[in-house]
TrEMBL record:
Top-level division of the source organism's lineage: Eukaryota
Pfam families attached to this UniProt entry: MARVEL
GO biological process: myelination
Segments crossing the lipid bilayer: 31-54, 60-85, 97-117, 137-159
Organism: Irena cyanogastra (Philippine fairy-bluebird)
GO CC terms in record: membrane
The protein's name: CKLF8 protein
Length: 168
């Protein structure tokens, strides 16, 4: 006697949501071609240069360089984090967060603290401290000011973006 086989399939809401969410994950290559994207990559590359130039010295003997290291590493990590958020378009998946305000606050605080750190870095570099660290500290000071100007540019673009959102 022949057997009848009936197969019943069910789909859970978890599986449906998982497949729908993974299909909307995007990668925005065009972000790196925008001025804020270029500035962000420049901040990452030159920020890395700032803290590696200082980290290769005996900076821990001078508290001023400890402050510069804190600011440089802290904002380097956060900038990498924000680059990943913008590249993967994660901000579109979390609409509850006011991303334009977050970007403005982040870039504004990075500009102010990096400016203070660059001034502290430049004023702490003297030949009297330690001759073999002089070149690294002087170079880190120069690049800290360049990174500061990048954050100033991104603060401007963040302000323009925030302003256009609040006018709507």
């Amino acid at each position: 006697r022949p057997r009848s086989h009936t197969v019943t399939t069910t789909s859970s809401s978890f599986t449906a949501n998982l497949s729908a969410s993974s299909s909307t994950l995007a990668y925005d290559r065009e972000f790196l071609r925008t001025v804020p994207g270029i500035l962000m990559v420049t901040e990452i590359v030159l920020g890395l240069l700032v803290w590696t130039l200082i980290a290769g010295t005996e900076y821990f003997l001078y508290p001023a360089f400890g402050w510069v290291m804190f600011v440089a590493v802290f904002y380097w990590v956060l900038t990498v984090f924000f680059l990943i958020i913008y590249m993967t378009m994660t901000y579109t998946r979390i609409p509850q967060v006011p991303w334009t305000m977050v970007g403005l606050c982040f870039n504004g605080s990075a500009f102010v603290l990096y400016l203070i750190a660059a001034i502290v870095d430049a004023s702490s570099v003297t030949k009297d401290l330690d001759n073999h660290n002089y070149n690294s500290w002087a170079a880190s000071s120069f690049f800290a000011f360049v990174v500061t100007s990048c954050y100033a540019g991104n603060t401007y673009f963040s302000f323009i973006s925030w302003r256009s959102r609040t006018l709507q």
